Every structure is written in structure tokens, then in C-alpha cells.
């Protein structure tokens, strides 16, 4: 059964990636992680945006300027930013790591088996765009976060880690 991942363990994974900036349209699914990031301003710059498209573009600018950002959003925001994912991250070859909260996911079901269309279609959407992704369904999956972050840098394009259960 999927488990909530403690925010402090998520922060440790972000530290392992040398992440310096978190660009977000706040995600209630990952609110404890966002609170922990906000409480560590010496380690992480938290940049709050109005839209997910803006978040992708800000993260791209930060990366071009030498930063190591990530984009933290809800799954519905990923849908809202598909054109920017394509135009900036894919076509622009900008390493973009998305940490995506699956708000409303039923923990007893795999995302692809969700009764909620928006949850059910996240992985097929990423597959259609050729975006590598991994599901984080508990603390033991945090190595996948690190792998997806590093892969985004290696391939110079987008990757995603899907946070299956609310962080704690």
C-alpha cells in the first residue's frame, strides 16, 4: 500500500541532487514539503508563480543562469502547461524536473487505474510526449526522484516524479 513520504526525506533527496531553487504553483498535495522548503531559505530559493507555464519558463531561465531548479506542481497543472513542456523543455532541450502531486489519487489504485480521469491520464500523457517518469509511493522510492532529476540533466529534457500520496 502506498505511504506518505515525510517532507524531511524529500528534502534530503533534493539536497542529494544539489537543487537550489524550487519553482512552484503551490500544490496542496505536497504542502508539507513546500512548508519545509520555505523554512530553509539558506538552502532553497522558493519561487511561487501564477501559472504552471510560467513556472516552467522561470525554471528554464534559472537553469540557463547556472541554477539547479525543479518545478513542483499538481497534476492538473501539468496538463495546463503541456505547450510549455513541449516548447521549452522538449524542443528547447532544457533539463526540467517536475515533482508532480497526484491530488485526489486513490491510494489503493495504481494511477492508471484511477476512477479520476485527470489522475488516470497523467502517465499516458507523459508517455505520449516521451517524458520519462517514476511513481513515488513511499520513502523507499526516493531513489527514483534522484534518478529522474539526474536523467533530466543527462538527456537535457523533461522528466517527472509523481508523488502518489500526500507528503507528511
Please provide a written account of the structure.
This protein has 168 residues and is of the alpha/beta class. It has a single domain (7-163), classed as Thiamin diphosphate (ThDP)-binding fold, Pyr/PP domains (Rossmann fold, 3-Layer(aba) Sandwich), CATH 3.40.50. It is 42% helix and 18% strand. It contains eight helices and six strands. It has helices at residues 7-16, 31-38, 52-64, 75-80, 82-90, 117-120, 122-128, 142-155, and strands at 21-24, 45-48, 69-74, 96-101, 133-136, 158-163. It has a six-stranded parallel beta sheet, with helices on both faces. The protein is globular. The two termini are 16 Å apart.
Features:
single chain; 168 residues; alpha/beta; Rossmann fold; six-stranded parallel beta sheet; 18% strand; globular
Strand order of the largest sheet: 2-1-3-4-6-5
State the domain count: 1
Using the coordinates shown, work out and report the CATH topology. Answer: Rossmann fold
Shape: globular
In whole angstroms, how far apart are the ends? 16 Å
CATH architecture: 3-Layer(aba) Sandwich
Superfamily (CATH H level) name: Thiamin diphosphate (ThDP)-binding fold, Pyr/PP domains
Structural class comes to: alpha/beta
Order of helices and strands: HEHEHEHHEHHEHE
* Number of helical segments with 4 or more residues: 8
Summary?
The protein is 42% helix and 18% strand. The protein has 168 residues and is α/β, with parallel strands linked by helices. The protein has a six-stranded parallel beta sheet with strand order 2-1-3-4-6-5, sandwiched between helices.
Amino acid at each position: 500500500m502506498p505511504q506518505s513520504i515525510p517532507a524531511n526525506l524529500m528534502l534530503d533527496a533534493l539536497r542529494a541532487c544539489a537543487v537550489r531553487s524550487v519553482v512552484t504553483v503551490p500544490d496542496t498535495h505536497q504542502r508539507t514539503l513546500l512548508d519545509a522548503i520555505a523554512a530553509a531559505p539558506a538552502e532553497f530559493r522558493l519561487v511561487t508563480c501564477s501559472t504552471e507555464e510560467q513556472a516552467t519558463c522561470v525554471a528554464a531561465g534559472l537553469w540557463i543562469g547556472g541554477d539547479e531548479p525543479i518545478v513542483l506542481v499538481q497534476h492538473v497543472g501539468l496538463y495546463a502547461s503541456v505547450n510549455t513542456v513541449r516548447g521549452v523543455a522538449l524542443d528547447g532541450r532544457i533539463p526540467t524536473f517536475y515533482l508532480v502531486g497526484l491530488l485526489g489519487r486513490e491510494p489503493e489504485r495504481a494511477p492508471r487505474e484511477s476512477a479520476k480521469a485527470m489522475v488516470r491520464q497523467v502517465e499516458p500523457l507523459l508517455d505520449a510526449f516521451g517524458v520519462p517518469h517514476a511513481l513515488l509511493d513511499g520513502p523507499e522510492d526516493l531513489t527514483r526522484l534522484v534518478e529522474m532529476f539526474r536523467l533530466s540533466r543527462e538527456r537535457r529534457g523533461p522528466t517527472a516524479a509523481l508523488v502518489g500520496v500526500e507528503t507528511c
